[in-house]
């Protein structure tokens, strides 16, 4: 899985990891589109005081569910 991590304001790091679904309530999904919102933009600009870093931004998704434990 590719993820873009906001390490600090205006500083992205592109990483790869292998996702694992382990518990009820989790799902493995394939992301088709991600949209950032105003809060994400403010985090990128360093203007979101309550955000901590590193942070994965972009929580508005268009996705496909691939795996759900126990299903």
Summed up:
This protein is mainly beta and 71 residues long. The chain has one helix spanning 38-45; strands spanning 2-8, 11-16, 28-35, 60-67.
Overview features:
71 residues; single chain; mainly beta; two-stranded antiparallel ribbon; elongated; 4 strands
Layout: helices, strands, pairs:
Elements: E1 2-8, E2 11-16, E3 28-35, H1 38-45, E4 60-67
Antiparallel strand pairs: 1-2, 3-4
Describe this structure in words.
11% of the residues lie in helices and 41% in strands. With 71 residues, the protein is mainly β. The strands form 2 sheets. Strands 1-2 form a two-stranded antiparallel sheet. A two-stranded antiparallel ribbon has the order 3-4. β1 and β2 form a beta hairpin. The radius of gyration is 14 Å and the shape is elongated. It starts with a strand and ends with a strand. The model has no long low-confidence stretch (mean pLDDT 87).
Low-confidence runs of at least 5 consecutive residues: none
Shape descriptor reads elongated
| Number of discrete helical segments | 1
Structural class: mainly beta
Helical content band: 10-25%
Distance between the termini: 22 Å
Beta strand %: 35-45%
Physical arrangement of strands within the biggest beta sheet = 1-2
Mean pLDDT: 87
Main β sheet profile: 2 strands, antiparallel
Number of separate strands: 4
Tell me the Rg in angstroms: 14 Å
- Element-level helix/strand string: EEEHE
